[in-house]
UniProtKB/TrEMBL annotation, chain A:
It comes from Nocardioides phosphati. The lineage of its organism: Bacteria, Bacillati, Actinomycetota, Actinomycetes, Propionibacteriales. Residues 29-208 form the ABC transmembrane type-1 domain. This is ABC transporter permease. It comes from the Bacteria. Keywords: Membrane, Transmembrane, Transmembrane helix, Transport. PANTHER family: GLYCINE BETAINE/L-PROLINE TRANSPORT SYSTEM PERMEASE PROTEIN PROW, POSSIBLE OSMOPROTECTANT (GLYCINE BETAINE_CARNITINE_CHOLINE_L-PROLINE) TRANSPORT INTEGRAL MEMBRANE PROTEIN ABC TRANSPORTER PROZ. The keyword Transmembrane helix applies. It is found in: Cell membrane; Membrane. The chain crosses the membrane at residues 33-55, 62-89, 95-114, 155-179, 191-211.
UniProtKB/TrEMBL annotation, chain B:
The keyword ATP-binding applies. This is ABC transporter ATP-binding protein. GO terms for molecular function: ATP binding. InterPro entries: AAA+_ATPase (IPR003593), ABC_osmolyte_uptake_ATP-bind (IPR051921), ABC_transporter-like_ATP-bd (IPR003439), ABC_transporter-like_CS (IPR017871), P-loop_NTPase (IPR027417). Signal peptide: none annotated. Residues 2-237 form the ABC transporter domain. Transmembrane segments: none annotated. Keywords: ATP-binding, Nucleotide-binding. PROSITE patterns: ABC_TRANSPORTER_1 (PS00211), ABC_TRANSPORTER_2 (PS50893).
Length: 218, 271
């Protein structure tokens, strides 16, 4: 049985019919990446300024720790259902749920990154006559960059794997194969869809690993 | 000229680092604040460039209260050399030295060439200019720190235990280098150290501090040695130790200087 599923998934993936059209892998992949990018951009717009401010001033650190902890504990599917009931079917629901999911790693990366910068270095920069803004942009952020990129890395990975929930309310993405496959008992398709998500996640992770390494080197 | 007028500093946690401190630091001389840790010497130094604000009293540079000046502009006009060099780890040595010039609005290529010249002034191999700070030894990093302090040719140079973290031989080298530079450059230097020998070597004026930023004695090294104010100063400068209590003995027809334990310390040269 399980052999059949794997063979079936292989056949599904090599069937050219599944690689074109609006329900083809490239289109679903683009949808999926689109949701991911949109989510992470919105989350970054919230989390980065907040995280940098907390890291630079050292204020509200306790709040940041509590916030990242409690947001991480929220179940995404439950949150999605709640938001959809609240705002109705549409893009807002899943994007909001995914933003909530990706804020904590971004926030943690930003404030932990700034906190990791040697106090002596910051003091030195101030003593040389850097303005507070220059301390942040020319000293703290460059030195915190590996951890900030690390925050993006985990946020993107979580969103890529979790964006499959968008299909749960019929918005497409790679989750479509999973949800539909389960519904119509086409398990080879479910497995094939999961494999595409896994490969996408691995490729993105490798890309971020490289980015992180080059950020650490400079 | 730098002047402290009844300056006090009590930190938020209630510790009093400095209490009613007044002193004039004449231009183009080196004043050394010396004392053990917790005596407020670094606090005093950091008041000059407003890294610390006094709780009461004033700090004046050429009769202008620094509190009336924009802290960022004030800091850019003063050279600052700190303990552990305080180099920016993500910038190359030459770019670190160029920082004060770049902050002052000097163009990149001019800043780089002046930074290279400053590295040469402090006796650093130009081949090191393209390296990152972590690739340098502690002594080399300190030289870079001194080059950075001097590069913009400030009138005032603040030096906060700049040679505290390097080994004695390198420290000796750096001290001689600073004396040579000071003969050429004539800066107003404020120097902080816990090492009395370093204070006596570098200071035109030496300020000995006790805990709580209280002045034990101010004077030239000779004045302090000749007339220590009290037992604290006597002990602090080492007058109760054999190596400071020298006398002359005739040995084999020559006059040699001998310390309190009878160990020869040197010879009497021509005056």
């Amino acid at each position: 049985m399980s052999d059949n599923v794997f063979v079936g998934a292989g056949q599904w993936l090599t069937d050219s019919a599944h690689w074109s059209g609006t329900d083809g892998v490239p289109a679903r992949l683009l949808e999926h990446l689109g949701y991911t990018v949109l989510t992470v951009v919105i989350a970054a717009a919230i989390a980065l300024p907040l995280g940098l401010w907390i890291g630079h001033t050292g204020r509200l650190r306790g709040l940041a720790v509590a916030l990242t902890g409690s947001l991480r504990a929220l179940p995404t599917l439950g949150l999605l259902t709640l938001v959809v009931l609240w705002v109705g079917i549409g893009l807002t629901g899943p994007i909001l749920a995914l933003v909530v999911l990706s804020v904590p790693p971004l926030l943690a990366g930003a404030y932990a990154g700034l906190e990791s910068v040697d106090r002596h270095t910051i003091d030195a920069a101030r003593g040389l006559g850097f303005t507070e803004w220059q301390v942040l942009t020319r000293v703290e952020i460059p030195l915190a960059l590996p951890l900030i990129v690390g925050g993006f890395r985990s946020a993107v990975l979580q969103v890529v794997s979790t964006a499959t929930v968008a299909a749960y309310i019929g918005l497409g993405g790679l989750g479509t194969y999973l949800i539909e496959g389960v519904q119509i008992r086409d398990y080879p398709m479910t497995l094939a869809g999961s494999l595409v998500v896994v490969v996408l996640a691995l490729v993105l992770d490798a890309g971020f690993a490289l980015a992180q390494r080059s950020a650490a080197r400079s | 000229m730098i002047e402290f007028r009844s300056v006090s500093k009590t930190f938020a946690d209630g510790t009093t680092a400095v209490r009613d401190f007044s002193l004039v630091l004449p231009s183009r001389t080196t004043t050394v604040f010396v004392g053990s840790s917790g005596c407020g010497k670094t606090t005093l130094l950091r008041m000059v460039n407003r890294l610390v604000e006094p709780s009461s009293g004033q700090v004046l540079i050429d009769d202008v209260d620094v509190a009336t000046r924009n802290p960022v502009e004030l800091r850019r006009s003063i050279g600052y050399v700190m303990q552990h060099a305080g180099l920016l780890p993500h910038r190359r040595v030459v770019d670190n030295v160029a920082v004060p010039l770049r902050l002052a609005g000097v163009g990149r290529s001019e800043a780089t060439s002046r930074a290279l010249a400053a590295l040469e002034t402090v006796g650093l191999d130009p081949a090191l200019a393209r390296r990152y700070p972590r690739q340098l030894s502690g002594g080399q990093q300190q030289r870079v720190g001194v080059a950075r302090g001097l590069v913009a040719d400030p009138n005032i140079l603040l030096m906060d235990e700049p040679f505290g973290a390097v080994d004695p031989i390198v420290r000796d080298d750096l001290q001689q280098e600073l004396l040579r530079l000071q003969r050429e450059l004539d800066k107003t230097i404020v120097f902080v150290t816990h090492d009395i020998d370093e204070a006596f070597l570098l200071g035109d004026q030496v300020v000995i501090l006790r805990r709580g930023g209280e002045v034990a004695q101010v004077g030239t090294p000779a004045e302090i040695l000749a007339d220590p104010a009290d037992d604290f100063v006597r002990t602090f400068v080492g007058l109760d130790k054999a190596r400071r209590t020298l006398h002359v003995e005739e040995r084999a027809g020559a006059r040699i200087v001998v310390d309190g334990d009878g160990r020869p310390a040197g010879v009497l040269g021509p005056a």
